[in-house]
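Lay summary. Proteins are chains of building blocks that fold into shapes, and those shapes determine what they do. In this project we predict the shape from the chain. Here is one chain we studied, written as its sequence of building blocks.
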Amino acid sequence: MRALIITLPLGVVALLLLLVFAAVSFGAREVVRRRCSDEDREELADQAKNLLTGVAATFAFFVGFAITVTWGAVSAAQTAVEQQAAAVRQMAREVDNITDRARSVELMDQLRVYANAAAVDDADPLRRGTTTALPSATALDRLEDSVIAYAYGAGANEREAAGLSAAASTLSNSAFTVSAVASRAIPGPLVVLLLFVGALASIIMGITTVAYRRPLLIFVWCLIPAISITVVAGLAFPFAMRNGMTLAPMQAVAQLLGG
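And here is the predicted shape, written in a compact code that computers can read:
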């Protein structure tokens, strides 16, 4: 389901949902028109009108809750990327301050490889939520091993080793945070609940129109849950890059190191 939502343009998702809700609404309308007498239709229509407000308010509440949850994930993802970029910059400063120039050049090259992988190669796995083996993970492991070898090696400057180790730890934690946020997804029960309440509201809306010959406003009503759920889908996966989320901070740092 995640792969399908990410692959489909949001406009297509909205159109599909609109067609589904419209079909449900018109289906409920036709069932009532064929199975009920004129008197029963009017009674059902009146009851449906009274019920519609409450169901619509319930749907709006669930949509608001879902948007709050998903926007929180988008915000956390952007913050995590910014912290990762800041950790790379701090690591670069610590590496640049090493008095052993040969070791400094070696570590900077490894940091550059990691930054490029995190900024470019990680984008697609993060989008799909497959974070168990990110392309940057190997480069990060190699960098950490080199830092440990230097920090605990003979002749290492104690102050430089401490700063380098702290920067490497921060970098590792920031990379883990990015992976953790990328694996987040909107809870399945909440998705089911949104679809169920949206379909229920569409059924009720269809019943309210049994007295009309051309209930064209059904499409207007069905557009509301379709767009609402599409907005939730657009925010549900932060690294799908359809919600304001961007890897620009990491890309800028990678370009800086590359220069």
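What the prediction tells us: The CA atoms of residues 147 and 165 lie 7 Å apart.
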